[in-house]
């Protein structure tokens, strides 16, 4: 059983406080690149890829392991927002953990995850 934060906590810990980056996709390689420097002050970085409808969140799981999740709700394809503890959907109240797993319905499917490769100076994110 998970202890969920109160709504006030969720509202205070909004996406606006997260570091973010905007990148151009490399359509030839079907990838985009993000500098490791973005993670100096945070384990979470909001990613906006040009011409993609939804944003993504990159999660630093360890010094060499990162996970990228699409911020599109698996219930009815609405945009998601972040707190420091969870990913949540304001449309119908679903909540997801940082593995992308739903922990509060109505969503019952995981978020889409993009393959994310670490190199010493950057991440290579494989686009869908
Ligand atoms: S669209 Fe997210 S909970 Fe319904």
Can you give a write-up of this model?
The protein has a single domain (7-126), classed as Rieske Iron-sulfur Protein, CATH 2.102.10. It is globular. Strands 1-3-4-5-10 form a five-stranded mixed beta sheet, with no helix packed on it. A four-stranded antiparallel beta sheet has the order 6-7-8-9, with no helix packed on it. The protein has one helix at residues 7-12; strands spanning 20-23, 31-35, 44-49, 56-60, 66-70, 81-82, 87-88, 95-96, 102-104, 113-114, 116-118, 122-126. A hairpin with a 6-residue loop joins strand 3 and strand 4. It has 128 residues and is mainly beta. The protein has one helix and twelve strands, in the order αββββββββββββ. The termini are far apart. Bound molecules: FE2/S2 (inorganic) cluster. FE2/S2 (inorganic) cluster binds at residues 73, 75-76, 78, 89, 91-94, 106-107. The site of FE2/S2 (inorganic) cluster (FES) has 11 residues, from loops.
Summarize the structure.
With 128 residues, the chain is mostly beta strands. It has a single domain (7-126), classed as Rieske [2Fe-2S] iron-sulphur domain (Rieske Iron-sulfur Protein, 3-layer Sandwich), CATH 2.102.10.10. The chain has one helix at 7-12; strands at residues 20-23, 31-35, 44-49, 56-60, 66-70, 81-82, 87-88, 95-96, 102-104, 113-114, 116-118, 122-126.
Q: Roughly what fraction of the amino acids lie in strands?
A: 25-35%
What is the 3D form? globular
What compounds are bound to the protein?
FE2/S2 (inorganic) cluster
Helix content: under 10%
Average pLDDT, all residues: 89
Q: Which quaternary structure do these chains form?
A: single chain
Number of strands: 12
SSE ordering: HEEEEEEEEEEEE
Radius of gyration: 14 Å
The CATH topology is what?
Rieske Iron-sulfur Protein
Ends apart, CA distance between termini: 33 Å
Major beta-sheet overview: 5 strands, mixed
**Model regions low in confidence, pLDDT < 50 over at least 5 residues:** 1-13
Q: Give the domain tally.
A: 1
CATH superfamily: Rieske [2Fe-2S] iron-sulphur domain
Summed up, the helix count is 1
> Can you name the CATH architecture?
3-layer Sandwich
